[in-house]
Amino acid sequence: MNVRVGVLAVQGAFLAHSEILEELGVTAVEIRQPAHLGGVDAMVLPGGESGTMSKLLVSTGLYEPLGKLLHGGLPVFGTCAGMILLGSSILDGRDDQSCFGVIDIAVRRNAYGRQVDSFEDDVDTTFGQFHGVFIRAPRVEEVGRDVEVLGSHDGEPVLVRQGVALAAAFHPELSGDTRLHEFFLSHVAGLVPVAINQTAKEM
Hints:
Helix content is 22%, strand content 30%. By secondary structure, the protein is α/β, with parallel strands linked by helices.
C-alpha cells in the first residue's frame, strides 16, 4: 500500500515534516490548494503562525474541504500552530481566526513567550521521555473529557489525542526523534505497522 500523507504547506515548517515522513517510507504530499487533498490517507498540520495559516486556509479555499475531511475521520497530526488549528477554541485569537474543532481543547497562542523565549526540554510521555522543542509554543488551558493527555511538561499537557487526531505543543520534527511520527502513522492513523524503522518503542 502506498500511504500518502498530506502536509499543509501554505506557511510554516512543513519541509521537516515531509522529510521525516519520507524517511519513514510514506509519501509526503504538500497541500497548497483543494485539488491536492485528493487521495491523502492522513494530514499533518505543521508549526508556523497560526493566524496567518488560518487566513491562508480560507484564501486558498482549503479551509472548508479540509475541515470536512477532518470531521469525516481523516487522521491528522498537528504541531504547535497545528495544535491551535485543531483545537475547539483559541483563547486569544484574532476575530478572523478559525480552528477546526476536532480536538476538544482550549488553546492560548504564544503562551510560553516570544521567539526569544523558545526553549528545549524533556517531555514526559506515555512512551518515555521525548525531547521537546518549544518555539512560541501554545498552552493547552482546557481539556475535554474525551481527550487523552499523552505527554506533559511541568505538569501541563503538551501532547494530546482525541480519536484519530493527535496534537503537540512542541516541534517533534526538529528533535531528531521520529517516534511521534511513527506513533501517529501506526497507532493513531493505523496506516503502517507498529515499528517502521525499529526506533519506535511500545506505545
